[in-house]
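Minutes, project check-in
Item: structure for the 150-residue chain
Input as provided by the requester:
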Amino acid sequence: MSTRIVQFLAIAIGALALIPSGAHLAALPNKIGLGQSEYFLVQGIYRGWAVLGSLWVAALVVNIALAVVVRSQPLPFWLALGAAACIAAMFAIFVAWTLPGNQATHNWTTVPANWETLRRHWEYSHAVNAAIVFLALCLVTASALCWRRA
């Protein structure tokens, strides 16, 4: 596979991964203060979004592939590797703060006693991940822009 194709895929998949993360971030100010019944009702809009997690897997794989493909050029390599590290950090944040909320609430269909703490972790972990995926997109784009055909 040519370097340009891998670069294109890394940028395109990174941009697609930013869409759901950005949507969560944009909704946060309107959702964070909702009461319990309203919040659980609104959370229903995310049913089926788990499939979008495949974008994170694809972004991690393609950014690692890009780092391998451009490894002969230090700056593009480190930028691509940085993008892959960002995606890996997103997974860690998801597992530490987002997933526990999904599990404890059965994907926001059951109200546990600590639902407000879970909501805070869930909302802010998505906000942090939006910033991280944006950073990953910037890094991979910079990698593609500074790469030179040998």
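Outcome recorded: The chain is about 80% helix and 0% strand.
No further action items on this chain.
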